[in-house]
Amino acid sequence: MTRLTTLADGEAVAKRAALEIARNLDGARRARGVAHLALSGGTTPARTYELLASDRSSGIGPPNWDGVEVWFADERCVGPEDEQSNFRLAHETLLAAAGVPEERVHRMEGELGPEAGAERYAETLRQRVPAEAEAPAGTRAVGNTGALPALDVVVLGIGPDGHVASLFPGAPTLDAEAQALCLPVHDSPKPPPERITLSLAVLRAARACVLLATSASKSDAVAAMLGKPSPHVPASLLRRGRLSVIVDDAAAPPPPNN
Ligand code: 6PG
Predict the structure, then answer these.
(1) Whether 182 contacts 214, CB under 8 Å
(2) What percent of the chain stands above pLDDT 70?
């Protein structure tokens, strides 16, 4: 079952999300000495990122960023300085303030274009993120995710059409072969058209996904993702037992029979 948390407003959503992400990072570091965090772009997670980077005395962010490796769920095919870059958003809201060293930030190289960028990222992921089945003795392998890298926590937004990362409704990326890690996108309905995205299989292999939605423009998508899994609503295909959905009142699905 998907965990759904409904809170009054965007600030409360950001605070809860930051706390949950920080808890996941700490758990992963305690268990394995390292935590793999993947970030999305879009407007929704910016405040969460700021809170995660905030002064430790606020009690929200992790106590430190030692051992945290930062990844991306998707990227637009632009350079890292471009205003549309997801890396740039993460850098400005979180990475610079938190002082995460460059060598632990793995950005998708949008400037290489969809194919080369996706290929390069898949290679890096494969090299640096162990599959759950390869986890050290004492930790249990769960599910049928095979040898896919297991990110510890993936932060996701959702589009009004139900997309997550750059996996769009009915797109060929949803039919990618089971072991594909990272995919090129050429015709994103959300600009810019060229993108790089983690595959659905990698999102499903993650130990946790935290999906954030605020504003009434997202309420239909949130209701649809909690319904029957369908390729027309990519978010509905995420692994429900590992998914935490945090929404504000406006984005909350209407109560049943209403
Ligand atoms: C992107 C995203 C995308 C985003 C959703 C929600 O790069 O465009 O990663 O999946 O999370 O479209 O975007 P908003 O938060 O702006 O509504």
Answers:
(1) no
(2) 93
